[in-house]
Design goal:
Order of helices and strands: HEEEH
Radius of gyration: 29 Å
Helix content: 55-70%
Structural class: mainly alpha
Number of strands: 3
Strand order of the largest sheet: 1-3-2
Distance between the termini: 92 Å
Number of helices: 2
Length: 115
């Protein structure tokens, strides 16, 4: 563990954030940093220390904000679930109506052929 990682992890403990910071510099990474909640890691990919510190702070703020965004995500997921149920019921209603339409059309066609 580098000195910077040790400082990051000390700060995480003081802030009561249940993550472990890992500084794994990767000049080819498309991200500066990310939080891996599944493994409890705050991964920092920046190569230079100043950028790594900025990314560490950014991820702490991001972590704190997730509680706020989780509410919106829950509301949106609930709305999507309700819309999906409504659309499924409407689709069934329309399919039943189309089936009735075909039956009426088929009877009408058969009657015309008999006459």
């Amino acid at each position: 563990m580098t000195d910077l990682e040790t400082k990051f992890n000390d700060l995480l403990r003081k802030l009561n954030i249940p993550l472990q910071a890992v500084w794994c510099p990767d000049p080819n990474s498309k991200r500066h940093a990310e939080i891996d909640r599944e493994n409890g890691l705050l991964l920092i990919y920046d190569v230079d220390e100043d950028s790594a510190i900025d990314s560490f702070i950014h991820e702490i703020l991001e972590y704190r904000m997730t509680h706020l965004t989780a509410l919106y995500r829950s509301i949106i997921n609930y709305l999507l679930e309700m819309i999906d149920k409504w659309a499924y019921r409407k689709k069934d209603e329309i399919l039943e109506q189309i089936l009735c339409d075909f039956k009426i059309l088929a009877k009408h066609t058969l009657l015309e052929k008999k006459n």
